[in-house]
TrEMBL record:
It comes from Mycobacterium hippophais. Signal peptide: none annotated. It holds the Pfam family adh_short. Belongs to the short-chain dehydrogenases/reductases (SDR) family. InterPro entries: Fungal_SecMetab_SDRs (IPR051468), NAD(P)-bd_dom_sf (IPR036291), SDR_fam (IPR002347). It comes from the Bacteria. This is SDR family NAD(P)-dependent oxidoreductase.
Amino acid sequence: MANNDNLIALVTGANAGIGFHMTQHLARAGIRVLQGSRDPARGTNAARQLNADGLEVDQLTLDVTDDQTIAAAVKHVADKYGRLDILINNAAIVGDGLPASQVSRASLLQTFDTNTAGIAAVTNAFLPLLRKSGRPRVLNVSSELGSTRLVNDPDWPHSNVAAAAYQLSKSALDMLTVLYAKELAEEKISVLSVSPGYRATGLSNGEPMPGAGDPSEGAAGIVAVALAVDPPTGLFFNWQGEVVAW
């Protein structure tokens, strides 16, 4: 996408953290951004903050676990814009942060509902609008913590992290990316998993975790992949634009 004029992008979970910074970077690139947020008040405040900087951002109420808000969001985008060019599925929760031997059924179900089922629900609902784009693409914000290869590597710095609900949901999300990529390849809809890297965000309760980087930097890396002129499909990219082997 060499020319960003008139492009429409939707970022879910965008009122704070990585999603907020992705919205900011996209808008600075000249894209009209729909800033998805579960909480209307927080979403409105976040959009106003970016509007005050002269950025083209619209608040969009969207709870990925609520089919009614998804349907309403699709109708709004269809009525106002008629299409969607870029969908960035960013909304996520970390779950209870417990290891596999302690995780509860409730935590697994709640985390999967947001991090995996919610992404499927949003993507499926917006597919008709993505099909009306000249160069549609879907980016699922994932994590290397869902990689069985990396978690099994004792030399990987985060191999000892044990947050079963979150990690399992991201593994499932990456499979979902591959399944979408295969199914939508003939329609030339690019579907990718992307990672912002280890960042200090709301998922860690804002704590300055050891080694956690600037969320804006991670967001910028994802936006660069989103705006690539000829993106591939079915792959996992890190924030540096490198393909990661799952």
